[in-house]
Every structure is written in structure tokens, then in C-alpha cells.
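Notes to self after the call with IL:
- keep both proteins in one doc
- input above output, always
- annotate only the second one for now

Protein 1:
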Amino acid sequence: MQDYYAKLDEVDGKTLVDAHLTNKGKGQARTANDAWRRALAAGMPWPESYYVSPLDRCLETCKITFEGLDFPGERPFVPKVRELLREVYGVHTCDKRSSKSYIASNYPFPIEDGFAEEDPFWTAEHRETDKEQEARLRKFLDQVFEVDDSTYISMTAHSGAIRNILKVLGHREFGLQTGGVIPVLIKRTTVA
């Protein structure tokens, strides 16, 4: 039954495409905001750069998670919308992203160059496998580390994307709860 509904654009007048946060999800984002507030007050360094998935529920989570925090002037909150950071592509309509115009009109976040107006990756016929998602997220991380010299980076993404980012990094499996936060230490080494 869940597989049936996952492929629909709408049910009972409610849009399922690019699923939005529920009230429960907004509460989880506020919990993440509290966690950041406490950690920063305890001395955790502020992120120097931010990345966020282009799916609406992640954009909203990012906005709520960081709203109201007193960002230092040299480390402003400017999350970059990145296509490759998103959840699994295909089949499930909740993972089909909204248009670039919708994102730009609803979130004041810079969108990466080359970002297509309509979702170029979602198809009704193929659901991205874990291996395919790992390859995509490895490419995302390579792109970030190639151009971003920040020491402290925040990424707001989906549980499946986070799970596979950790796998790409060689991190142990970690069951991150919805709305949860995990700090990860990465040593970057440039390889020819």
C-alpha cells in the first residue's frame, strides 16, 4: 500500500510531490535549533559554510534549524542549494524536487550554477540504488572539498543521503534520528 501512495502526485487534495514538512517535522527542526543553540553556547565553532538539499523539506528544516541564532559577522548564514545533496532520485514523488523558480521565490538561499529549472534526475521508472547514491554523494563531497576551504561545514540533508555520506567517508553506521544532528571530523588530503 505504501508503495502505491509513494508514486502518486496527490491524495485527497494534498500534494505529495516534493513533500513539505509536517508539523511534527517542524518541531524536529526546532529541536535541532535548540541543539545548535546549546552547542554553540558551550563553545562549538560556528560553521563557515552551509549546504542544503534542494527538496522543500530540507530547505525548510535548514531555515528553522538556524533561525534566530546570532551568527558572527564573519560567518553569516548563507546556505548553498546543491542538487547532488538530495535524497534518492526517482519513483517516489516526495523526492521529485520543485522548480528552481519555486525554490528561489520561497527561500533566500543561493542556488548553484547550472541548476535546471525542472528536476532533471527524477523519473517514474527508476529508483536510485544505494551504490548510485553513494557515487553521487562522493561527487558532491569532491566538489565541496575542491572549492571550499572552510574548516567547519554544515550540511542539511535527508537520512538516506546522510547514511550514504557516512558510508562514503568510511564512517561507522550511525542511525541518525529525523531532525538529528551529527558532527563528523574529516581529514582532507589532496590526491593527485
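Protein 2 (the one to annotate):
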Amino acid sequence: MNRSLSPTRRLVIGAAVALWLAGASGPVAAQPKPIKIGILAPYSGVFALFGPKVIEDPIRLYLKEHDNKIGGQPVEVVTADDQSKADVEVEKAKELVENQHVDVIIGIVNSAGALAVRDYLDGKKVLTLITVAGAKEITQSRKSDSIFRVSFASGQTEAAGAVLAQVAGIKSMAGIGADYVAGHQLLEPLLKNFEALGGKVVKILWHPLGTADFSSYLTELKQIEGQIDAVAPMMFGADSVRFFNQYREFGIKAPLYAFGDVTEQTLFLDQVGEAAAGTKTYWLYSPYLENSANTAFRNAFMAAYKRLPGGFSMQAYAAMQFLDAAVNKAGGMTNGQAVQEAMETAKIESPAGPLFFDKDHNVIVNVYLCEIRKGPDGIVAQMPLGPMVTDVDQHQTVEQAEQNLKR
């Protein structure tokens, strides 16, 4: 008698065994869908360092520290090179949203790009965490329910900067700035608030973007250096590197007092080093702030990348902290509205201290008085001197900054 089973009977028995095993061991848990993060930042062009070194590195570090999970869900990261151009910004945002189907966008460096892409991201209701672009309209006249700024609005820190200039003993100064929107939106309020506090502005100079030779401007500054306690430069990237090097070569003795963005670690100090030593700054971060979150962040960043983190890298790391807190509170990423509402009320202990958002989704920060010099690691950095202005929001007045001064 042939006892072999027919193919049909074998399938039936196999299915029955599978069902029995499932019943014995319980249902197989479904793997949670990964949260997809899109990094929208320059990876080429004049601001090419921002994408890989300033934004992606701290995001990758945070994920490494958290088993590649946010709110218990695995994470996938994709990148898009916006070349820091407004028209490319929109094109790459569409690629991330419509082709890559990202859940959240982190980055955006160029303020013109942020303004150009704002309506698209708002219309698609894409949760967006801006870590650099300072266009104040994004969290003021053109605010969006979906967009949060983890960096700072242009002009947000300048009242605090004026107060801290007084603390540094500066009673008169000259200013030199890049002649474009950001230069004006930052230097003008610093000097206006400085004058409101009784300070004297002796001269203001404006130079075109891409100035290679600052000698004519330095000649003017040298002529008045006996009348001023400091020079306030407000230029960025290659312009600031050239200005600082030429300033020292020109032999001007007047100290420099700078917005910490001008002398940011990754984009400036890692290149200029001791040529900037002695400059006092007002800035929202130092790698040597004394708090446990910053110590852990600095040590982990140094171990991973063999360099100090700068302020913008701290902001990218803080964006991940905010996202993790919001997803945890919302119980996952599937309910975008719940994640957004959780983000609005989130408060994190970042490497820069406590951070949270105002009602228009702009971060509220502390601003620290620092001096550029070698730190304990032998690396030139913005070292905190102690005085700071707390709870700096995007509408802070100089009177409020005075009230919030801590020595």
C-alpha cells in the first residue's frame, strides 16, 4: 500500500502545523515602520561643509547613541544636496517628500531657500526642523504649523549681545559688516541696542560679499582705533576667515567683539585657530559649557569625529532631541498632528542648556559671553566667561535682556 502523501495533503498538513506553531508561540510581532528623516542641506558649493560635517554628523551621532531609534522606532536617514540655492531647495524638498516619502526634514541653511520652500512644506504639512536658516519671517509673518526653528531668528540675540558688550567693558565700538540682508539684520540691531544702552558707535563700514582684500576698510579702522574699545565684525564663511587674518596682519590693536556665528567652530575656528584668540563673542553655545548633557555630547563628538562640535552641530543634535521627545509623547510618528502638538510643548536639556519653543515655533535660548582661546583639549574654542542672558526669544528687547542678565 502506497502511504506517500499527495502534494495537496502535504500543503494542508503544512498549513495546519504552521497555525499550531503560531498558536503555541503567539503571533509574530510586526516590525515597526522606520521613521524616515530627510536631511536637506548643502553638500556641494560654497557651504558644502554644512551638510556632512555640521548637520549630518551630529544626527548620526545621536542615532548611534540611541540604537538607531526614535521613540522606539527604527530610523532611516536620506540626504538631499540643496547646494544652498533657493530654486534647488524647492526641487530637493519635493524629491524628499514625494519620492523618498520622508516623515520629517531637518536642516535648511540658506535663508532665501527657507523662504522659497516654506509654502511647499506648509502645504504638504511636512514636519520640518530648521537648524541654521535665520530668516525671521519663517517664525513671524510667515510662520507655519509644520515648521520649527531650532537655531535662531536673525536679530534674536543682538539685544543680549549689546548687554554682554557692556559687561565686557566695551563703551565704544566700530562695526564692519557684509553688505547683504543677513549682515544688516544682525549688525544694525547690535549697534542700535548698544547705543540705547549708552554706548558710542564711532563708525560703520559695509563691504561687498566675497571681499578678498580688506586693506581699505582696515585702513579706516586703524585711523580710529584710539577712539574705540572694540570692532564688531559681521561677515561669514570665507569673508570672515580673510578679515580676521588680515586684521591681525594689519597690526590693529583694538579688540574684536563678534557674534558667535561669525566665529563658529567648524566653519571658522577649525581653520583660523589662534589668529582669532582674544576675541570676545556672544553666542548660544560653547563646547565647554558646564552641564552634563554638554560634557557627554562634547566627549562623544570628539571620540567620533576628532574635532569639537560647534553651535550649529549642537542645534542639529538638539533637533534630534526634540524629535525623540515629541515622537515618544505622541506614541509614534503615525499621527503627525500629535507629533506637532508634542513638539510645541517639548522642553529638552540640550548641550546648550534648556531649550523650548515660543508660540510661533522659534527656539528660546541662552546667550553666553565667551572668549576665544585654547580650551582644556588644546583646541581654540569659544570659552564661556560666566555672564549670560537667559530666555532669549525672537522678540527680546534690550530692557528684557538687561533683566535676564546673569553674572
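Annotation: The longest strand covers residues 380-392. The chain has 13 helices and 16 strands.
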